[in-house]
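Internal tracking record. Fields below are filled automatically when a chain is submitted to the structure queue. Please do not edit lines marked as system-generated. If the sequence contains nonstandard residues, flag them in the REMARKS field before resubmitting.
Queue: standard
Priority: normal
Entity type: single polypeptide chain
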Amino acid sequence: MTTHEDPPGTDEGYHRGLGSRQVQMIAIGGAIGVGLFMGAGANIAKAGPSLVLMYALAGCVVFVIMRALGELLLYRPVSGSFAEYAREFLGPFFGYATGWTYWLLWVVTGMAELTAAAIYVHYWFPEIPQWVSALVFLVLLFGANLLSVRLFGEIEFWFSMVKVTAIIGMIVIGLGVLTFGFSQAGETATVSNLWSHDGFFPNGVGSSLLTLQGVMFAYIAIELVGVTAGESADPERSLPRAINTLPWRIALFYVGSLTVILAVVRWTEFDAGVSPFVAAFAAIGLPFGAAVVNFVVLTAALSSCNSGMYSTGRMLRDLSANGEAPARFGRLNGRQSPAFGITVSVALMGIGVVLNYLVPEKAFGYVTSVATACGLWTWSMILVSHLRYRHGVLAGRLPASSFPAPGGAVASVVALLALLLVGVLMGVDEDARISLYVGAVWAACLLLGWGVMRRGRDLPTTGGPPQAELAAH
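SYSTEM-GENERATED OUTPUT FOLLOWS
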C-alpha cells in the first residue's frame, strides 16, 4: 500500500476533499450533540428554566473561542491546528500536550458514543446484544474514515442534516402548540412556564451555575471545523462562513429549542433520566415522538463518533510530524488518510465499548466529565495562542490575519476567565470532580512521556516557525 511522509508542520499529502457544503454542515453538526439530547434533562432538573440562560452564556464564550481560532486559521490554515498553534506560540511542550489531550478527548468520547448508540438500537431491537451493535457501528465508521476524507464529509453532512431537521421540526411543532393550543399540551402550554413555577432560578443561581460543565460538554466538537482546515478545498471562504454562522446556530438549536420545550412543558415535569425532547413529544401526544427522538439521538451519537475517529488520526499525525509520537503515525495510506493513527484510536475505542457495557450507568457520566476537562484545556490553548499571536502582530513580527476576531485580546481574556470558572465549578460538583483526578493522572503521564522523549534528544524549548517562514506568510 502506498504511504506518504511529510516534513514537520506541513499539510503535504492531505487531499483537500472537503467542500464548502460539507465544512458548513460539519460546523452545524458540531453544534448539536448528545450533550443536548441526553444531558439537557438532568440539567433542567438542576437549573429549571435558567438553563436557557446558561446555554446562552456558554454560547457567547464558545463564539469568542471560535473567532479567536478563526483568526489563527486564516493566518495559517493547518490540520491539527490546536496543537500546531500551541506549539508555535507557547512552545513544543504545549503543542505536545494539546495534541495528545485532544486525542484523548475524542477517544473517551468515542467510547461513550458507541455504547450510547448500541443502547439506542436496543430500544427497537432488544434481542440484539449491545456489544454487537457497538461493534457494527465501530467497523462501519472505521471503514468510512479509512476510505477517504470526502466520504467522511458526506457521512457527516447527512448525519448533521438529520439532526438539524429534527430540531427545526420540534421548534415548529412547539410554536404551533403555543400559538394555536392544539394537542394534549395545548391547555397548559404558555410562555409564562418559563418563570411561573418557583421563578426563573427555581433552585438558586448556584445550582444553575453548576450546570455549566454539562452545558460546555454539549458544545464540545464545535471546534472540529479547525481540524478540517488542512483538508478544506477553499479555507479562505468556507472557514469564515462556518464560524460566522455560529451565533444563529446557538440561538436556534440550543437557546431556541430549550425555550420552546420549557414553554410547552413546565420544567417540573422533566426527569433527569429522560430526554427532554422525548418528554415534550409525549406531553404533546405524538405516539411516534419517542421513536423519532431515539433515531435522532442515535444519529447524534454516530456523528460524534465519526468526528472523533477523523480527529484522532489527524492529531496523531501532527504529533508524529513534530517528533512527539511514533513516526508510523505520520504516514498516509493510498487514499490520503492517516490510517495507522485511526486504527490505534479505534482499537482503544473498542476497549471502551467493553468497559461501558460492563458499567453503563456510571461510565457515561464519568467519560463526559473527562471529555469536558480535555475540552477546557483545548479551548484555553486556542485563546492563549490567540493572545500571543495578537501580541506578535502588534509588535510587527507576524502578518495580520484576514479574519480578525472582534474584541481582540480583551475578549479572549474574558473567555479564559469564564473557562477557569467552569473548571472551579467542576471541582465543586461531586459528579464532575472525578475529571480533575483523571486530569492529574493524565498530566503526570504527559510529563513522563515528555521526559522520555527529551532524553537523549535536543528538542527546542520555544515554539514558532523560522523567521524566514513567517516572512513568507
